[in-house]
C-alpha cells in the first residue's frame, strides 16, 4: 500500500475535475472527468518508449513529477524499482496516487508538492520523469522544474525524461508559434506553451542535462483512433458515451480538437531522455 504525505482527508476528496464547469475547467481534467486515463500528448506510444529508454530496473529510485492519475506509475511499477515516489500538487490526484500498489517490493509514496520544490532529498533519485506538465508552465517555472529534477538526481547514475507537446519544426516562425500558443490557451484554459524540439533540448542543457535520445509522435490526443489505442475499445466507447450525454463537455472537447486539428502540421508530442552533464573539476 502506498504511504501518502498529503494532508487532505480522503473522505473530502472528489475525483479531479468533479464539480467544475465543463466550459471553463483546465482542458486536461475534462477528458479525465469523462474517464480518460492517458492524458499525455504522445499517447501510449511515447508513454511506453519513455520507461524503456530510461531502463528502470530494481536498483532504481524513481521520482515522477506531476504523476496525475498514475497511468505511467503503473507501467513503472511493473519494472519493480527499489522505490517510487509520485509528486503532484493536486489533492485529488494525490489521493488517487496514494492508492497505488506495487506488484513487487517497491517502496511507494505519494507526495503533495509543487514540482518546482518537492522537498525530497538531494541526489537520492536515479530516475526522474514528468509528462504533460512542463508545457503548461510559464518559462521560469519550466526552468525551475528541470532544475529541481537535476537536484533530485544522482550525478553518476541519474536519468531524466520528459514527454510534452512540441511545436514543429525547429525554427518555426515566432509569430505563428505565438498564434498557436494563443489558440491552445483559449481552448485549454491553462497557460500552454509548447517548445520546438531544439528549444526543449536547450532548456534541459541550460539546467545541467545532456539529451541522449528523443522521439516525436503526432499530437492526436482527442482523435478517435488514438482514444481506442490509448484506452481500449470498451473504455473509449464509455468515454464517448459520457461526452454525448454532457453537451457542455462535448462542445468543449470539440473546440479543443478543432484547435489541435487546425495546427496539426505544427503540433506534435515529444519525449526526451537526458543524463546529468558531467561538471568539470
Ligand atoms: C495533464 S496532467 C498530466 C498527468 C500525468 N503526468 C499524465 O501524463 O497522465 C497534469 C498534472 O500535472 C500536475 N501538475 C501540473 N503542474 C504541476 C506542478 N508544478 N507541480 C506538481 N504537479 C503539477 C497537475 O496537478 C495534474 O495532475
Descriptive overview:
It is a single chain. With 281 residues, the protein is α/β, with parallel strands linked by helices. It has a single domain, classed as Rossmann fold. 38% of the residues lie in helices and 19% in strands. The chain has 10 helices and 8 strands. The chain has an 8-stranded mixed sheet with strand order 1-4-3-2-5-6-8-7, with helices on both faces. Helix 5 links the parallel strand 5 and strand 6. Helix 6 packs antiparallel against helix 10 and helix 8 packs across helix 9. The structure holds S-adenosylmethionine (SAM). InterPro entries: Methyltransf_25, SAM-dependent_MTases_sf.
Summarize the structure.
The chain has 281 residues and is an alpha/beta fold. The protein contains ten helices and eight strands.
Keywords:
single chain; 281 residues; alpha/beta; Rossmann fold; eight-stranded mixed beta sheet; 19% strand; globular; disordered N terminus; binds S-adenosylmethionine; transferase
Largest sheet: 8 strands, mixed
Poorly predicted regions? 1-13
CATH class: Alpha Beta
**Into which percent range does the helicity of residues fall?**
25-40%
End-to-end distance, in Å? 43 Å
Widest β-sheet, arrangement of strands: 1-4-3-2-5-6-8-7
Report the C-alpha radius of gyration, rounded.
Answer: 18 Å
CATH homology-level superfamily = Vaccinia Virus protein VP39
Overall form: globular
Strand content: 15-25%
- Distinct ligand kinds: S-adenosylmethionine
Keywords: Methyltransferase, Transferase
GO biological process, one term: methylation
Pfam families: Methyltransf_25
GO molecular function: methyltransferase activity
Amino acid at each position: 500500500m502506498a504511504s501518502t504525505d498529503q494532508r487532505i482527508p480522503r473522505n473530502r476528496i472528489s475525483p479531479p475535475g468533479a464539480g467544475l464547469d465543463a466550459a471553463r475547467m483546465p482542458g486536461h481534467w475534462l477528458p479525465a472527468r469523462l474517464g480518460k486515463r492517458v492524458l499525455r500528448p504522445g499517447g501510449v506510444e511515447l508513454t511506453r518508449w519513455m520507461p524503456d529508454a530510461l531502463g528502470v530496473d530494481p536498483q532504481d529510485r524513481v521520482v515522477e513529477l506531476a504523476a496525475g492519475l498514475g497511468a505511467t506509475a503503473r507501467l513503472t511499477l511493473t519494472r519493480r524499482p527499489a522505490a517510487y515516489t509520485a509528486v503532484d500538487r493536486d489533492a485529488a490526484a494525490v489521493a488517487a496516487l496514494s492508492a497505488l500498489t506495487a506488484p513487487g517490493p517497491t517502496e511507494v509514496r505519494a507526495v503533495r508538492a509543487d514540482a518546482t520544490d518537492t522537498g525530497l532529498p538531494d541526489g537520492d533519485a536515479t530516475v526522474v520523469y514528468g509528462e504533460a506538465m512542463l508545457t503548461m508552465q510559464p518559462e521560469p517555472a519550466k526552468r525551475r522544474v528541470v532544475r529541481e529534477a537535476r537536484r533530485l538526481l544522482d550525478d553518476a547514475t541519474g536519468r531524466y525524461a520528459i514527454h510534452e507537446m512540441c511545436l514543429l519544426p525547429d525554427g518555426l516562425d515566432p509569430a505563428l508559434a505565438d498564434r498557436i500558443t494563443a489558440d491552445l490557451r483559449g481552448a485549454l484554459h491553462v497557460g500552454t506553451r509548447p517548445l520546438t524540439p531544439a528549444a526543449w533540448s536547450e532548456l534541459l542543457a541550460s539546467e545541467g542535462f545532456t539529451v541522449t535520445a528523443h522521439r516525436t509522435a503526432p499530437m492526436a490526443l482527442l482523435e478517435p483512433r488514438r482514444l481506442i489505442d490509448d484506452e481500449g475499445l470498451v473504455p473509449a466507447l464509455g468515454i464517448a458515451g459520457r461526452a454525448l450525454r454532457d453537451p457542455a463537455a462535448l462542445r468543449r472537447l470539440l473546440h479543443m480538437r478543432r484547435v489541435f486539428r487546425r495546427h496539426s502540421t505544427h503540433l506534435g508530442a515529444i519525449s526526451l531522455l537526458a543524463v546529468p552533464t558531467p561538471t568539470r573539476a
